[in-house]
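idk why but the lab printer keeps eating my pages so im just putting this in chat instead. protein + zinc ion:
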Amino acid sequence: MTRQLVALLALLSVVGCGDIVPPERPAPYQFSIDCSIDGLCSSAAGDLELIFSWPRHSLPVRVWAEPRQDFPLHTARAIRLWTDASIYGEFSAVLVSDSQVADLIVLLGEPELVIQSSSGVTPLDCRGSTPIEVTRDTTIALPFRITIIPRAGSGPNELDRCFPTAIAHEFGHTLGLFLNSDDPSDIMFARPMVASTSLRDRATFLTLYHTRPTVRLPDGR
Ligand SMILES: [Zn+2]
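predcted complex ->
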């Protein structure tokens, strides 16, 4: 009798758990750089897997945006988008007025005549670039520098559309989402086509921020 009761309770608790399964979360895309296979790292990096996220003690991340072309506005929006992906305060950032104290700098680059997408066929109105530098002792080099490069001849309307998307995408790289997604509905798609983060972007961000990092911040930061 007792054993039956225990079995019944176990069954109930299994059913109970089944009832409160959280809503399905899409599978994350890859965010870390595996230096052993990707060919993205210098040979000095060896077989490292580069996993980076901003630790709690470093928050809020300090961000400076060049005061041209509404960059501070677009950057504030990118901060909001990614902060909203947090559930337990995993990430926060603030705009600062002094670039000298910034962890992350957003710059407007010189216009380029032709900007091709990575597939080489579609001309883009702007593109972003964010080099990731990790030293041999697996410390990340700060500040991150996002450069947004407009295509020469792009009109103001095209750039007003392109800049916020490109800044939000590059911002994702500085959060530790080092790789591009393979899905055009994600903002981390190589040629970003959506202006906001997708469910999958947010799921990937949360997975990263609950994964142990292998790359750390410089001492004192
Ligand atoms: Zn990218």
